[in-house]
Design a protein that fits this description.
Elements: H1 26-49, H2 54-85, H3 90-118, E1 123-124, H4 132-147, E2 156-157, H5 160-192
Antiparallel strand pairs: 1-2
Helix pairs in contact: 1-3, 2-3, 2-5, 3-4, 3-5
Amino acid sequence: MACAMPMTSPEPNNVPHPGWVQLWHPRETVEFTVLIASCLLINALHHRWGAAAVGPLTWVVVAWAMAKTAFYFGETLWHLLKATACDLAYHRFLVLMAYNMAEVTFSYALDFYCLQRLDPTNLEGIHAGLSMPQLLFECFYFSVLNFSFFGYGDILPRSVPAKLVMLLEVVTAFTTVIFLISDFVSMKDSMRRPPHVR
């Protein structure tokens, strides 16, 4: 994310518009590649090793979700501090956070997809025999509901690993939506005050 910089160059095409938030960086391409590759790898290992690998691979998914939870917390905090230091407009910060939330919900949807492919009893309410796109949609739907705190109860986690992944997503949503975004305005105001007022 680049800070808002005034246009001083005579070549405006090479300078970002003031207040512009660049959402897509090469790092995002790497992140999405790693997310998709990890999901494909888990499914490939399950296909190759069969039922004997279900237990260990299930806990690999949980460990991966834990690592991503820590990463997303750090990334969101970094975006918050960077936006505050750059004096980024609040509505532009919300656009940036909406993008990050979409990435997070997609990430956890892949975790639920892997869990369901490993063992269809992990999530109740998803019909057996769904095609890959249908199952991905169901898992994304479940992930979005978890992240937005709208649990309708039509899909429920039934195993301990599925419950852990769901809890990790809820914790990520809580820290992102409630703590970090709601605190953005107060942090921005406190950094604008002179040192003797703080």
